[in-house]
């Protein structure tokens, strides 16, 4: 009989790599984004978060996880083996920069490479 020792988890997670921005999640930023998307702005805090989350979830090039949001060029978001891949960095940065206007991100905020693991 084999016995497994160590950490065992039934939770699902995925590794990600994205070139772009960590999105601000203050109420004012949420309202600006909802307005940009043409969505009525709820007055209740919980409804505001839900409306923001749904709008972000329906937006291409956005990842969510543990209450955080990132926007830009998604390089990978997978819980499986990652194949060898190459990307054009200049094109990836340009795609990330397009998200700056959508989310009203200050021009002084630099594009960054984010890596990590998130719950699915």
Brief descriptors of the model:
120 residues, alpha+beta, four-stranded antiparallel sheet, 4 strands, 31% helix, disordered N terminus
Helix and strand layout, with pairings?
Layout: E1 13-22, H1 27-36, H2 45-57, E2 62-65, E3 68-78, H3 89-102, E4 112-119
Helix pairs in contact: 1-2
What does this structure look like?
With 120 residues, the protein is α+β, with helices and mostly antiparallel strands. The chain has one domain. It contains three helices and four strands, in the order βααββαβ. It is globular, with a radius of gyration of 17 Å. The model is unreliable at 1-10 (pLDDT under 50).
What is the CA-CA span between the terminal residues? 32 Å
Overall domain count: 1
Instruction: Please give the largest β-sheet.
Output: 4 strands, antiparallel
What is the residue-averaged pLDDT? 84
SSE string: EHHEEHE
């Amino acid at each position: 009989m084999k016995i497994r020792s160590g950490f065992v988890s039934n939770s699902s997670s995925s590794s990600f790599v994205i070139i772009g921005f960590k999105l601000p999640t203050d109420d004012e930023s949420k309202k600006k984004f909802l307005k940009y998307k043409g969505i009525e702005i709820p007055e209740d805090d919980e409804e505001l978060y839900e409306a923001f989350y749904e709008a972000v979830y329906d937006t291409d090039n956005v990842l969510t996880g543990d209450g955080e949001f990132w926007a830009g060029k998604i390089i990978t978001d997978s819980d499986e083996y990652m194949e060898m891949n190459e990307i054009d960095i200049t094109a990836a940065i340009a795609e990330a920069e397009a998200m700056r206007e959508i989310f009203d991100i200050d021009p002084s905020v630099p594009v960054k490479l984010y890596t990590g693991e998130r719950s699915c």
